[in-house]
Amino acid sequence: MSWAPDSPVELPDGRLVCGNHGLVVCGSCCVDYSFMDDVLDDDAIEGRVRHPEEYEDDLDRAGALDIEKLDPIRHMEISRGSGSVLPTVFVPPPSATPQSLFPAGIGRKAHPPVTRFIRADDPESLLIYTDGACLGNGQVEPKGGWAFVFGPQELNTTASINERLENQGPLGDYANPTSNRAELRAIIGALRYRNWASEGFTTLVLATDSEYVVKGATEWIRAWLRRGWRKSDGAVVSNVDMWQVFLGEVERWHEYAVKIQLWKIPREWNTEADLLAKEGAQLDEELTYKERLGIVP
């Protein structure tokens, strides 16, 4: 049987085990995730030597481990959503801004603790800024880029992702780059990047300056679903593949009691993600869909 790269499972305490057997060190998968011990608690385990009995403990844990319940790192299959669960519009208090409502804070349920944009009055609510860009939108050779920012940029820490918009979508469909498509790609990227639930979050608020994304996901989509992804004039809805995967992510997170909300913010409140998306559009061309999964903060 040919070897295939392992997809690690992130346990609630932040440790990693192999996806197939639930082991920290697995000879079958050719992986050793014990390096995460150093990441999780440098002070507590400095100079520590792992003993054979510790590997026996790993085997015992693996025997009791229910891999099927360790999503969303283990089971990241892309699926077409049915519309059974839809995102909702985030309604902020009057005069609230993302910075005032979701200041930088320490998520202490993550291991190690991480810095995120956490709601001041609700530590289980996380804000992620998203944006998409298309240089030469509507022209002969447009270049799309997407980005999301999930925490403040700190020394030696990158809390953002930006990439070139792929020519091929997550379901294998080919499409020309557009700003709307890039906006949806950023949303999908943010939802699939991390096991946000393992950090203690039950609500993900995606801040975007795209009316297309917010109204599309919370208003127009109901009619699109009734018509079989067609508009009122009978034309096929643009970016169907992206919309379907977006819904699939909302439904996947719903299974883990995580709500997805969309906050339409002014462009001037989204400058960092906007700049990163434009930088992403300048990166090398991406022919096929590429996943970005975050393992450590």
TrEMBL record:
Keyword set includes Metal-binding: yes
Enzyme Commission numbers on file: 3.1.26.4
InterPro entries xrefs: RNase_H (IPR050092), RNaseH-like_sf (IPR012337), RNaseH_domain (IPR002156), RNaseH_sf (IPR036397)
Transmembrane spans: none
Sorted UniProt keywords: Endonuclease, Hydrolase, Metal-binding, Nuclease
Biological process annotations from GO: DNA replication, removal of RNA primer
GO molecular function, one term: metal ion binding
Residues of the RNase H type-1 domain: 122-282
Gene3D superfamilies for this protein: Ribonuclease H-like superfamily/Ribonuclease H
Catalytic reaction annotation: Endonucleolytic cleavage to 5'-phosphomonoester
CDD domains linked to this entry: RNase_H_Dikarya_like
Family from the record: Belongs to the RNase H family.
Name this polypeptide is given: ribonuclease H
Source species: Fusarium globosum
